[in-house]
Amino acid sequence: MATVTVNPSGCTFSCEGKQTILEAALAASIALPYGCSMGTCGQCQIRLLHGQIKRVKHHDFSIRQADRLRGNFLSCSYTADSPTLVIEALEARCSADIPRQHINARIKNVTQVSADIAIVSVQTPRSTRLRFLPGQNVRLTLDSEISADLPIASCPCDDRNLEFHLRRLPNDAFSGLLFKQTSFPLAVSIDGPWGEVEKKISYGPTICLSFDVHIAAIKSWIEQQLADETERCIQLYWFAAEDEFYLSKLLSSWRDAFDTFTYNLIPVQDTSCRSVDPALLKNALRQFAPKLLLVAGPDYFAHLIKRCADEVGLDEYTLWEHTLQHPKSEHVAV
Ligand code: FES
C-alpha cells in the first residue's frame, strides 16, 4: 500500500494493489480532475513530483513528450509503485471547478420505499461518468422529454451509480411515470451538475437538518464525510412523516460504524413542515453549538432554522443551505 500526497493541497490518500491513482483518490473523496476514466480523454493528466508509478491500464491518449519529461502521467492508468508518492494536481473544491456534463445513461430501477417515495438508481456508461460534489443537483430527462431537477443522493466517490430520491406529487408527470414504470432499464439523460457546495473547510461540530426527501443532498455530503473518515462530529436531525423514514436502517448502520455520527428521527404531522417545533431546533443548536450548519428543506424550514440560530446566538458558524436553483438563476442547458 502506498501513501499518496497531493500538492499543493497536502491531502493524502492510500493506493492499494492495482488500484489506479484516480480510483484511490475518488474512493478517498479527493476530487482529482478526470473525464473518461478509460485512458482516452487526457483530462486526468497530473504530474509526478516524487516516487515511482506503474502502468496498470492501457491508455490511447498520448501525452506530449515535453509533458512526459516533466513527469506528467494519466492518473486513470497508473498506480503507485513506491511506498510514498507526491503528485501535483488541482482538486475540485467548489462547483466552479466541475464542468457541466451531458450523459446518456439508464435508470436501472425504481424502488418504492413508502407509499409516495421511491429511490431511483441511475447508472452511467463505463466510459462517461458524472463528476460532481456532494450537495449538487442534476436534471434527469426521459425519452418522452419529461424531466425533473433532483439533488444527487449518492456519494461522489461512486461516479457511475447515482441515487435520487423521488416523492410522487399530484400533477407531476416525472414521478407519475416512474412510479408506474415496471420495465427497466429505462433511457435517461443527465445534465449538470450545478449547485453551490460547502466551500469553507471547517472541522468543527456539524448539524445537518433535513426535511422529508430533501435529505438526499445531505445524505451525499454525510456519505462522503464518512468515506473520508472525517474527525468532525456530525449530528443529523431528519424531520419526516412517521412512516417515511426510509433511510433509518442505513443511518443506524452509520451510527454503529462511526463514533462521529449520530442522528435523530423527528416525526412530523404533515409534509408542509409547519409542525416543526422551534424549541426542539433551538435546544439542538444550543447543545451542539455547531460550527457548520447544513440545511435541506423547503424555504419555510430553512427560514425557521436561520431564525432559531439567530435567536440562540450561535457565533462564527457557516451555513450551507441546499437549493435546487442554479446560483446564477439560469436553468441547466438541456
Ligand atoms: S480520465 Fe480520460 S484519460 Fe484518464
What do you see in this structure?
The chain folds into three domains: 2-91, Roll (Ubiquitin-like (UB roll)); 98-194, Elongation Factor Tu (Ef-tu), domain 3; 206-321, Rossmann fold, CATH 3.40.50. 20% of the residues lie in helices and 33% in strands. The protein is built from seven helices and 18 strands. The protein has helices spanning 21-27, 65-69, 173-180, 215-227, 248-257, 278-288, 299-312, and strands spanning 2-7, 12-15, 45-50, 53-55, 72-74, 78-80, 84-88, 101-114, 117-123, 137-142, 147-151, 161-167, 186-194, 206-211, 234-241, 261-268, 292-296, 318-321. Helix 6 crosses helix 7. The longest helix is centred in the last third of the chain and has 14 residues, at 299-312. The radius of gyration is 21 Å and the shape is globular.
Largest sheet: 6 strands, antiparallel
The radius of gyration is 21 Å
Q: How many domains, as an integer?
A: 3
The fourth-level CATH homologous superfamily of the largest domain is Nucleotide-binding domain of ferredoxin-NADP reductase (FNR) module
Q: What string gives the helices and strands in order?
A: EEHEEHEEEEEEEEHEEHEHEHEHE
Structural class: alpha/beta
Mean pLDDT: 91
CATH architecture of the largest domain: 3-Layer(aba) Sandwich
Poorly predicted sequence stretches spanning 5 or more consecutive residues:
329-334
Q: In percent, how helical is the residue content?
A: 10-25%
DSSP strand count: 18
So how many helices?
7
List the ligand species: FE2/S2 (inorganic) cluster
- What percent of residues are in strands? 25-35%
- What is the CATH fold-level name of the largest domain? Rossmann fold
